[in-house]
Each structure stands twice: as structure tokens, then as C-alpha cells.
């Protein structure tokens, strides 16, 4: 089955007028490059080509993953027209280096003239308690990248409410996206981060959306996922993704398995959760806290 035999992945409009596909393929986690960063990893290229073949045209990369060259090579080998793709990469904001320098290096590694979305990978580039003026200075550099036309949209990742508020207070271009770990066991309720997103028109991008299925069992949503999967004739992972998609949250999957990628493409368009089912998962999820990433920054019980 080729990509054009599946229903197109829906998009959501960003505050700058551009559109982002609601389902994306992430090159972090499973394809995070370890070992010799200079050696081309054919498996990463192969996994990305598999995702492209199945129609995952939203590709999420980052300088920190060490695999921008592999992402670029997969794009080149796919033969797909550039306009058909939505490509994201992120800057690590290395100390003593401008974002212009980092962005130019990323573009060269990708072999592209522009990216669709460029993100600050985290607010913690200077430590666990970044100063507002540091975040603001970096955001002004991001705005210059957007003004140049080499990034169609700009945003952030792993920002909490104070970090977003610092940037929003001086922004000429608002962040269009905040990419965060988001699943029923990490809903960021403590400081109303999700509410701030909605008030400011910032799209939530979820990484780790399958966490309650893949990493955090047993837990209070297990029974709900199982029951809804049986009701709709799908897998529990499909229910986990629909919980995001049905809230207008962009979801990223990092699987390198073609069967799983095809399964999501085939089954996700066939059902939607009701408002009551979305709320039930949310309420059950608040009965457990689990964070899979950034443990060196957050305390174990920190639900932000």
C-alpha cells in the first residue's frame, strides 16, 4: 500500500498562517545518534525513508539528535518535492554561539534552503533557571531567522509558562508552537501551561504521546485505553494518539517499524473519541505522574 492510498494527514493552522500536519515522524529517541557522529548511519536514513514511503511528510529533527545529515539524505533520496514536506529542526543554543551560526550549520547538514519550522530546543541552555533576558535575547535572534525567510515558522520546545511569558512580552513574532512531553500522565496542569497556549494561539506539539502505553504501565488509564480500543476495533496506541489529535494537539511518533507506522495511518482516520472519552482519559491520567524526559531538570514529583 503506497502513501496515496491512505487518507491525507489533517493539518492545523498556525498563528502565522502556515499549516502543520497533525501527525509527524520524530527522529529523536529511537534514532538519536550515538557513537561516531561523523559516520553516516544508514539505519536512520532507512527508517526515515520508510516513514516517508507511508506518507509521514512531517519530519521532526534537531541539532541535538546528531542526525540532521541523515534526515537530509533521506529527503534527497526520497525524490519527493520539497513543497510536499514539513521539516522541523531545533537549536540547542550552545553557549557563546549565535543562533544564526547554529541555523546555518543545520541548513547545510540538511542540504535544504529553508525549514518549515525552527525551534529553540529548550529554555535550559544556560541552566535550570534561565533568566528572562536570556530567553528574550535568543528569541530576537529567532525572529531574525524568520525575517530572513529561511524558516517559515518559529517556535519553542520544553518551555514552561514563565519562559513563554518572558518571550511573549517582547515578541514581534509569537512562537507558533511549543513542543512538549504531553500524555495523560503529564498534562502540565500545575501552572496552566495548556491554558496559556490556548489563550495565545500557540499550538501544542506532543512528544512521547504513547508514554502511557509504552513506558508507564501499569497505570489508571490502562483500563480506559483497553476498553476504547475494543470499542473502536483499534490498538491502544491509536487511542493514545487520538486523545492528542482530538484536542488539536500535534502528535509525534518515533517508531521505525513499518507495520506500526502503516497501522497508525490506516486506523487513525477511522474513529474519533467523544468529548466524554477525552475527559475520562484526562481525569484518569491525573491519578498518576510520569515524566520520561528532562529528569535532570525536574524533580520526580514536578507536574509542570
Describe this structure in words.
The protein has a single domain, classed as TIM Barrel (Alpha-Beta Barrel), CATH 3.20.20. The protein contains 11 helices and 10 strands. The model has no long low-confidence stretch (mean pLDDT about 95). Strand 8 (about 175-180), helix 6 and strand 9 form a beta-alpha-beta unit. The protein is of the alpha/beta class. Helix 8 crosses helix 9 (about 235-245). An 8-stranded parallel beta barrel has the order 3-4-5-6-7-8-9-10, surrounded by 4 helices.
Short description, anyone?
With 304 residues, the chain is an alpha/beta fold.
SSE arrangement, N to C: EEEHEHEHEHEHEHEHHHEHH
The helix tally amounts to 11
Instruction: Profile the largest sheet.
Output: 8 strands, parallel, barrel
General shape: globular
Gross CATH architecture? Alpha-Beta Barrel
**What structural class is derived from the secondary structure elements?**
alpha/beta
- Tally of structural domains: 1
Overall mean pLDDT stands at 95
Please count the beta strands (DSSP E, at least 2 residues each).
Answer: 10
Strand-residue proportion: 15-25%
Structural topology:
Layout: E1 11-13, E2 19-21, E3 23-26, H1 42-53, E4 58-60, H2 68-78, E5 86-91, H3 99-110, E6 115-120, H4 132-148, E7 151-157, H5 161-168, E8 177-181, H6 193-200, E9 203-207, H7 211-214, H8 222-232, H9 236-245, E10 250-253, H10 258-267, H11 275-285
Parallel strand pairs: 3-4, 3-10, 4-5, 5-6, 6-7, 7-8, 8-9, 9-10
Antiparallel strand pairs: 1-2
Helix pairs in contact: 1-2, 2-3, 4-5, 8-9
Amino acid at each position: 500500500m503506497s502513501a496515496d492510498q491512505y487518507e491525507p494527514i489533517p493539518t492545523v493552522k498556525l498563528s502565522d498562517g502556515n499549516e502543520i500536519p497533525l501527525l509527524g515522524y520524530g527522529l529523536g529517541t529511537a534514532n538519536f545518534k550515538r557513537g561516531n557522529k561523523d559516520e553516516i548511519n544508514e539505519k536512520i536514513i532507512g527508517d526515515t525513508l520508510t516513514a516517508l514511503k507511508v506518507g509521514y511528510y512531517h519530519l521532526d529533527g534537531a541539532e541535538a539528535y546528531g542526525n540532521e545529515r541523515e534526515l537530509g539524505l533521506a529527503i534527497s533520496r526520497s525524490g519527493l518535492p520539497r513543497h510536499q514536506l514539513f521539516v522541523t529542526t531545533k537549536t540547542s543554543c550552545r553557549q557563546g554561539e549565535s543562533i544564526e551560526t547554529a541555523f546555518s550549520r543545520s541548513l547545510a547538514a540538511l542540504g535544504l534552503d529553508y525549514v518549515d519550522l525552527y525551534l529553540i530546543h529548550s529554555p535550559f541552555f544556560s541552566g535550570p533557571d534561565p533568566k528572562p533576558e536570556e530567553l528574550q535575547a535568543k528569541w530576537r535572534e529567532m525572529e531574525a531567522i524568520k525575517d530572513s525567510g529561511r524558516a517559515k515558522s518559529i517556535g519553542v520546545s520544553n518551555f514552561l509558562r514563565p519562559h513563554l511569558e518572558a518571550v511573549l512580552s517582547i515578541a514581534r513574532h509569537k512562537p507558533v508552537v511549543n513542543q512538549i512531553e504531553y500524555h495523560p500522565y503529564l498534562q502540565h496542569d500545575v501552572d496552566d501551561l495548556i491554558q496559556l497556549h490556548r489563550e495565545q494561539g500557540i499550538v501544542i506539539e506532543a512528544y512521547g504521546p504513547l508514554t502511557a502505553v509504552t513506558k508507564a504501565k501499569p497505570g489508571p488509564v490502562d483500563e480506559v485505553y483497553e476498553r476504547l480500543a475494543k470499542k473502536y476495533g483499534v490498538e491502544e496506541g491509536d487511542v493514545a494518539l487520538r486523545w492528542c489529535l482530538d484536542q488539536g494537539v500535534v502528535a509525534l511518533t518515533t517508531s521505525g517499524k513499518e507495520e506500526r507506522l502503516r497501522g497508525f495511518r490506516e486506523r487513525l482516520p477511522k474513529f474519533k473519541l467523544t468529548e466524554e472519552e477525552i475527559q475520562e482519559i484526562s481525569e484518569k491520567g491525573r491519578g498518576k505522574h510520569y515524566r520520561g524526559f528532562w529528569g535532570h531538570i525536574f524533580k520526580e514529583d514536578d507536574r509542570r
